[in-house]
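Researcher: Go.
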Amino acid sequence: MTVEPIKFLPPRAHVVGNRASILRDLASIVPRECLIEKPRELVAFETDAFVSYRRLPLAVVLPRTTAEVAAVMKYCHRQGIPVVPRGAGTSLSGGAIPQEDAVVVCLSKMSRILEIDSADRTATVQAGVTNLTISEAAGAEGFFYAPDPSSQLACTIGGNIGMNSGGAHCLKYGVTTNNLLGVKMVLADGTVIELGGKHLDSAGYDLLGLVCGSEGQLGIVTEATVRLIARPEGARPVLFGFDTSEEAGACVADIIGSGIIPVAIEFMDKQAIEICEAFAGAGYPMDVGALLIVEVEGSDAEMQAMLSDIITIAGRHGVKTVRESQSATEAALIWKGRKSAFGATGRIADYICMDGTVPLSQLPYVLKRTSELIDRFGLRVANVFHAGDGNMHPLILFDANDPSEAARAEEVGNEILKLCVDAGGCLTGEHGVGIEKRDLMRHQYTDAELVQQMAVRSAFDDGWILNPSKVFPLDGRPTA
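Model: Structure:
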């Protein structure tokens, strides 16, 4: 059966109109200090943390208010100018890279915390506020914001919403969508809408759930209301060392299968352990092939009871080392090593970071197959990831100056993502599809499913001007 194609406009190769006149028009919408147009200044916006592609945008607008975002969008919609929303540029899938003559709308100037409401346990912030800043602002009231990506010092809440980001503590507290209550958003034509709010549920369709993870293709979020959580009485990370990655993976599945939900379970293989220990001096055991960081929280009695059960389970999987943190300083070092993994790896090699997610029961198999694939392609891998929810982050090491290695790294990365899908998982857990995975979407979805997704996208932006060259295969119009 052939699926009736929908209207799909591929990425524009050029802007309708003259660049000089577009810049003059934009300068009439925002102050000159909020408009970047010189090539040497645009270089900072030509790529993001996924550095495989680079392209200078037509211009960068730095709006200060929702009204300015709306005015820019209204103008670009009228002129048919592609727009790429951008937060801090920490995207690992190319989500913020302009692949066409686009105007980048960067929300870094919209960085105010509008309200901390301890009674309702919510924070309302502008989209350019960094992830960690929310917890710092709420800390005085005894609260924190749970999602904590490794880039939380730099990444913004707007970008977190775009990619539905997670982090180490998402095992217990959920990812962005589980902690997002409301947004103010500017649509492609400049219309401003509000979805959700401080209330726990809304009538009608769950458009808030649709927006979270939409990668800036349905609108530009300018404000967000998020859930705050009371800080636990105590928290304790514990290191569990195993001889093999397969043993560690099986232990994770067994812990979750037993009904125990720690606040976090993080995985490192031997390559990752060595890289992170050399950078952070976290005290990781160096005589093991794989390491789990398991964090529990609550009262001393609660933590000890949970740890006792986890240690028993780990013993069934040949655990070699069990080391509890003995102080806040030691706990901070343990997490510093884990959260520095990407940066620490970048010191020793170029790398591609994958983001596939698999059912926990498949972790041992996928880890084994990943190792076999890496060996077959003659490369190295450092596995470090959120094991508790099966969100894998294999870092494929290569030399970017060697075209052969670069090509092999990209090819094996695609094979690993296909492996995740074939094992019952999906292409992305928190980094998004972006540029990196758009051509793999057909490996996970049928043509009919892609057509339906694109129909939803078109309902919000029928001209496809918002982040147009991301997420979906560029040839469009799939048939089934």
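Model: Residues 1-14 have pLDDT under 50 and may be disordered.
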